[in-house]
Amino acid sequence: MGYFITGGTGFIGRNLIAELGRRSEEPIWVLVRPASRAKLDRLVLEWGDAGRHVVPIEGNLQQDLLGVCGRDRSQLRGRVEHFFHLGALYDLSAEAADLERANVLGTRNALEFAHEMQAGRFHLVSSIASAGSYRGTFTEDMFAEADGLEHPYFRTKHESEALVRTACRVPWRVYRPGMVVGNSRTGAIDKIDGPSYLFKLIQKIRDNVPRWVPLVGFEGGHINLVPVDFVVAALTHLAHVPGVDGQCFHLTDPQDRRIGEVLNLFAKAAHAPTMTLRLEPSLLQAITHFAPAAAGEALKPMQRIVEQALHDLGIPKSAIGLLNHPTVFDARRSQALLASAGIQVPCLEDYAWRLWDYWERHLDPDLFKARSLRQAVKDKTILITGGSSGIGRATASQLADAGAKVLIVGRDPDKLARVRAEIEACGGRVATYSCDIGDPQACANFIAQVLKEHGCVDILINNAGRSIRRAIENTYDRFHDYERLMRINYFAAVRVTLGFLPAMVRQGAGHVISISSIGVLSNATRFAGYNASKAALEAFSRCAAGEYHERGIRFTVVNMPLVRTPMSAPTRLYEQFPLIQPQQAADIVCDAVIHKPQRSATRLGVLAELVELIAPSINRAIMSEAFTMFPESEAAGGPRAGATQVSPEVVAFASLMRGIHW
Question: Which residue in 197, 433, 490, 530 is the catalytic one?
Answer without folding.
Answer: 530
